[in-house]
């Protein structure tokens, strides 16, 4: 519930807040009331069904994955999703999540003294932000540019 009320990064469209909250509530309800979804950790029973979300919730899901530090998932799912026609209305938010994930990868690289990996991730983030005119105006892009 604390994630549900947490603020999200600047730059996302208005619909992301609602889809993020809807997704969190749906997952919470599934975990509480659908044992086939949740499984049972004590008895080591894995979940039997996967979570299926509508396309309109995908940007919210990537936003959440980014918030909890799952940058690799954000990048993998984002790249795959952008290839689908159904993702077009949500492309800006998907790309923003991917750019933020690259920034996280860069931060981790710099912290581990892997400077070249950090700069490569920042370059990918910059490229992603420039790929969408609406994202090219963000302060995040100017912050990334400071490193170069």
From TrEMBL:
InterPro entries tied to this protein: CDP1-like_a_solenoid_1 (IPR058032), CPD1-like (IPR044685)
Example of a GO biological process term: chloroplast fission
Lineage top rank: taxon: Eukaryota
Taxonomic classification: Eukaryota, Viridiplantae, Streptophyta, Embryophyta, Tracheophyta
Domain Plastid division protein CDP1-like 1st alpha solenoid residue range list: 52-143
Name this protein carries in UniProt: Plastid division protein CDP1 chloroplastic-like
GO cellular component, one term: chloroplast inner membrane
